[in-house]
């Protein structure tokens, strides 16, 4: 394990490696694999932190802040609901519902279990131009990334013409959390997967409701 991997910078992979080692012993191949994943996670964070990007810093910082409390997605949901017709209203409603379920899953379920501390931005001078407020919640997984991909999944399945651009926007929000130093890459990758997966579960439930609504409408 890297010498820089103190308690504050321990990844979920590192924590899993410790549990596997306790159960299966240090000779388990999974122990080293998990530790290597943790090392890669921290190394990518350091590369982003130390790469000068003066033209990107301001727009990426603004994008990250725009997604605080899902304001970006709630604003888009309102626009889609107004101008998107019936499909747009369904997409907007499902998108907001997906954000709510995802946020509860991440903030009430996963973060308390993982308890990964936020990155330490000290010693990285470039963060002066990128700085956003450091959230007080735990780092893993990223709630911003989870909400972004949950909303993108919901909207994309109802409005295919928006699927690519809204997923690109979601990817930009996810990356912005690493660029501004408030998350490790692993946090946003897992957050994105959790968001899309949760949205798919919400979509399955919504589809049942839509079928009932359509059936009742046909009877009228």
Automatic annotation (TrEMBL):
Protein name per Swiss-Prot or TrEMBL: Undecaprenyl-diphosphatase
A Pfam family that the UniProt record links to this protein: PAP2
PANTHER family with a match to the protein in the record: DECAPRENYLPHOSPHORYL-5-PHOSPHORIBOSE PHOSPHATASE RV3807C-RELATED, SPHINGOSINE-1-PHOSPHATE PHOSPHOHYDROLASE
Species classification: Bacteria, Bacillati, Actinomycetota, Actinomycetes, Propionibacteriales
Topology with respect to the bilayer: Multi-pass membrane protein
Keyword Chaperone: no
GO MF annotation: an example: hydrolase activity
Intracellular or extracellular location(s): Cell membrane
Species in which this protein is naturally found: Kribbella steppae
Transmembrane keyword on record: yes
InterPro entries: PAP2/HPO (IPR000326), PAP2/HPO_sf (IPR036938)
SMART domains named in the record: acidPPc (SM00014)
GO CC annotation: plasma membrane
Every Phosphatidic acid phosphatase type 2/haloperoxidase domain range: 94-203
Keyword terms: Cell membrane, Hydrolase, Membrane, Transmembrane, Transmembrane helix
